[in-house]
Amino acid sequence: MERTQLLELANKYGSPLYVYDTDKIETQYKRLTGAFNSVDNLKLNYAVKALSNVNILKFLTNLGAGLDTVSIQEVQLSLTTGIDPKNIIYTPNGVSLQEIEEVAKLGVQINIDNLSILESFGQKHPEIPVCVRINPHIMAGGNSKISVGHIDSKFGISIHQVPHIQRVVENTGMNINGIHMHTGSDILDIDTFLRASEILFDVAKQFKNIDFIDFGSGFKVPYKEGDISTDIEQLGLQLSERFNDFCTEYGKEITLMFEPGKFLVSEAGSFLAKVNVVKQTTSTVFAHVDSGFNHLVRPMMYDSYHHITNISNPSGKDRYYSVVGYICETDTFASNRRISEISEEDVLCFHNAGAYCFSMASNYNSRYIPAEVMIVDGKDYLIRKRQTMQDILQNQVVVDFAPKSKTKKEKVTA
């Protein structure tokens, strides 16, 4: 998306505003499928939690993607796209047996990540095939909060507990039709990923009816010029060869699955915010924007970097600013960042804002959640209206209650 187009959208729809470029989403989808084109059966299940607007889901399913979900609500949202339930995989963590049973009724692929629920589900529904999530005890990811495959992680069934899984299968007669892992986000070292994959192959060999192996995702995208990212093409070459060899050894052509989220939508997203105030202190120049961590929490929660450009003055002299929000707490997007000279009313663009940005937005400070716009073939479409006070109040129940009566003060006798 060009700077002039983004400025036009900010003027047309107001700010703050999320904008998504579907050309970039399609490019990333084709890049990933191309890297694994030597695999006969490849399935990409888009991770809905990254960006869950139903229009984005429809766009991806039209490209051929399935959907990866983590809650019954994400399953229900996914079904509104018209997708075949068989193309949805449901991978919750720590939810009740009741929720998993409700999802199973919808006909989607169930993925279970703990022994207790696996046994309970198998006893009640042995006829329903399930996938199991394995914890490979591999540390991967760019931040401790998104590293989920290590030994102390709450996610998955330990590789050392595979005999327990087998015992549950023997006792219940249930069918394990898939093996899954997800080591974490922002994976740089493909050797680490390949090492975890070998663990998954070893586990899969121990089950006779596997239809697919889901290798998760977590591929890193570049957040600034010169940034390191996952070498998808090299990973595709090495993992495809190993996967095809495994299929030969297993005696069956199975499906290779991934669940990319950030890789598909991160670079497609731009977040536009207007500068309210430029404030000079004794040591810092602050650019206060009409947003805060209620709209973009990643810099505060994950210490993540988002490149920021002044699209109102791209050729201005570079100066150093701390870009901050309007929340009544410290909400710093960038500290001492070099940006072309900023004036009040300028529009700043936060890049790589497609994944885990809008989806983590809130009404903190009773601020409205921003609007969303999608660009398809160069044309802009409003895909989420900006909130109003009516939206904030609609589920609140106003109770008509009598105020407490005041207690009369007793006279004090001297």
Automatic annotation (TrEMBL):
GO molecular function: diaminopimelate decarboxylase activity; pyridoxal phosphate binding
One Pfam family this sequence matches: Orn_Arg_deC_N
Domain Orn/DAP/Arg decarboxylase 2 N-terminal per the UniProt entry, residue ranges: 23-266
Catalytic reaction equation(s): meso-2,6-diaminopimelate + H(+) = L-lysine + CO2
Alphabetized Gene3D superfamilies for the sequence: Alanine racemase, Lyase, Ornithine Decarboxylase, Chain A, domain 1
Zinc-finger recorded as keyword: no
CDD domains per the UniProt record, alphabetical: PLPDE_III_DapDC
Listed GO biological process terms: lysine biosynthetic process via diaminopimelate
Residues engaged in binding pyridoxal 5'-phosphate: G218, Y356
Residues recorded with modification N6-(pyridoxal phosphate)lysine: K49
Enzyme Commission code(s) on record: 4.1.1.20
Cofactor(s) demanded: pyridoxal 5'-phosphate
Keyword Amino-acid biosynthesis attached: yes
Active site: residue positions: C328
Recorded coiled-coil stretches: none
Family annotation (HAMAP family): LysA (MF_02120)
Quaternary context: Homodimer.
Chain's role: Specifically catalyzes the decarboxylation of meso-diaminopimelate (meso-DAP) to L-lysine.
Family according to the record: Belongs to the Orn/Lys/Arg decarboxylase class-II family. LysA subfamily.
Protein name: Diaminopimelate decarboxylase
Top-level taxonomy: Bacteria, Pseudomonadati, Bacteroidota, Flavobacteriia, Flavobacteriales
Gene symbol of the encoding locus: lysA
